[in-house]
Amino acid sequence: MAIYAIGDIQGCYDPFRQLLDEICFDPANDTLWLVGDLVNRGPKSLKVLRFVKSLGNAAITVLGNHDLHLLALWSGAIEADERFNSLDKLLQAPDVDELCHWLRQQPVAHYDEKLNSLLVHAGTHPDWSIKKTLARASEVETELRGDNFATLLCEMYGNTPATWSGKLRGYKRLRFIINCLTRMRMITTRHKLSFAYSGAPRQARKNLLPWFEAERVAENTRIVFGHWSQLGLVVLPNLLSIDTGCVWGRQLTAVRLDKRLPRVIQVEGQVRS
Length: 273
Fold this sequence. Notes:
The protein is α/β, with parallel strands linked by helices. The protein has helices at 13-22, 45-54, 65-75, 88-91, 96-103, 130-144, 149-155, 170-182; strands at residues 3-6, 31-34, 59-61, 109-112, 117-120, 186-188, 193-194, 208-210, 222-225, 234-236, 239-241, 251-256, 263-268.
């Protein structure tokens, strides 16, 4: 049995299937950890979503910001614009309701105690333990799976509040948690979220740093994440960044998690039309 983490697919179905062939993936015995952003930008979001859903328990996927965009469009929480043209076919598919109901049941964070590994799309707040990360993810998941999920999907947009406080309540609290787990890249030295910069960390302003370079409560747990194509592949004992820009014509990456030394496998991505 093998466990592989795979980076942001973003509708790139053909490289995804090629990568599964490269790792000899067997859904009867192996498990995929998908970092989210299954859809958008790439040409075959519908095929990706149908295929991942068909894998059942052989695939664990956390929600990324583009997956949440899809749910917001589908629920009517936001209106479509040119950023989401690649989702038109999916949104018009006869099984779109089934697919989106399945998608909103997926977690925002997943932890495996045996592997001591946390799967999230973007990261986790430096001040949060793994237990607190999972508890806060659960707050979002409960709301997303409930009757008022469309309101959450409408209220999740915005960059404030930027600083965590246990006193946050309601949609401000949920927005911060969503931003932290699905959008975060850079933070200030005081752990304030900053969305003004998304490039390579070395080119950022001096008062900004990647969230994982801050002193972290969960520093002894391996964090597996994507979201940051300009960061690229980072393989460290307690940090695994695997968004390698497949949808931008670079690579789609898989990393085997259940071995002492992670094994990295890559296939070439596809240039967006």
